[in-house]
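Hey, I was hoping to borrow your eyes for a little while. I've been puzzling over a protein and I'd love to understand its fold better. The fold is given in discrete form, as structure tokens running alongside the sequence. I'd be grateful if you could look everything over and explain what you see. No rush at all, and the record is pasted right below.
>
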Amino acid sequence: SVLHSVRKMSRVDRTSIMLLDRETDLLETAAVIGPDGPMPAKLRLGRGEGAAGRVLSDLKPLIISDVRESPYFVAPRNGGPVWRGAGQSALGYVGFPLVSRGKVIGVLSLVTTQRRDFSPGEVAFLQAICGAVAVSIDNALIHQDIQRRAEKLAGEIALQKQYAENVVRSITDGVLTVDIDNRIVSWNRVAEAITGYLADEAV
């Protein structure tokens, strides 16, 4: 996965992605990868809350060599320090805003369990990676949104079709409907009685 690759290339202990919920304007944990793979984590941060919230509000990388010396690792919404998740304490942190098509969609965070000074070259390299990651995530979110809308529309069309068919069946005159190619698409019971053909035979 993307987080596995970023973790390996950056030589950190944990990587995580928090995505911005447009309705609540809160960052929510989407995924966390540690040395042994995916890790359970659930965190919600507002702008300026915690390290990731600070990245979101400032829209620029945040580098912390030792989180014990930083006020940004206190998350007011959860009432405690956020670096002690999943049983491992963090010391080094660097966070990047994920920006795609001119809009911020979340924050990518990298955590080390040892004090770490990220060089300007490392930061520039990771920032370039984050640009590609942001576009990839944004495309996936757009695809999911289109799929949800298509499923919703399909359900609405099915309901409308069922309603129309019920109306046609209830009419006391013989009724049939055709599509734009003049193919019969519905045939009510009265039409069956008049013609002697069942709907399954006519449609």
User: Anything to note?
Assistant: Helices lie at 2-10, 50-58, 120-170, 189-195, 199-202. Residues 4 and 33 are 7 Å apart (CA to CA). The radius of gyration is 28 Å.
